[in-house]
Design brief:
riboflavin biosynthesis, alpha+beta, 4 helices, four-stranded antiparallel β-sheet, RibA-like_sf
């Protein structure tokens, strides 16, 4: 369940045990060798727990926002412990070294919700009698 939450996906789980050719539970080096052969990843419960202790947010999505003035990067993050979502707009790539400070705007709530609330407030204000 933790991996699903860290990836920003709906929590779900499947329990299974990997067996070696003899039908015994694959552990340690045998399990890592099978993972290499099948080209799949292996992660330990301890690695997940360590990640949760060391990281408070996880990037869950990223795209570009082309505007007439410039092209922004949009980065969606999720707070691991609460599920709270954040949206960062950047002008420049946060992964690259910058000559000038990177321009960043951070929204700590749903950006569409902010837009809808603002639109609703304008409609209410404009529809009120003088």
């Amino acid at each position: 369940m933790d991996l699903m939450q860290l990836a920003g996906l709906t929590p779900g789980a499947v329990i299974c045990e990997v067996l070696d050719e003899a039908g015994n539970a694959a552990r340690g080096e045998t399990l890592r060798e099978l993972a290499r052969r099948w080209d799949i990843g292996v992660i330990s419960v301890e690695a997940i727990a360590r990640f949760r202790r060391e990281h408070h947010v996880s990037r869950v999505a990223q795209t570009r926002l082309p505007l007439p003035e410039a092209e922004f990067n949009t980065l969606a993050y999720q707070e691991i412990s609460t599920g709270e979502q954040y949206l960062a707009l950047t002008l420049g790539d946060i992964e690259e070294k910058q000559e000038k400070p990177l321009l960043v705007r951070l929204h700590s709530a749903c950006a569409t919700g902010i837009s809808w609330a603002r639109s609703a407030a304008i409609v209410r204000r404009n529809s009120m009698p003088p």
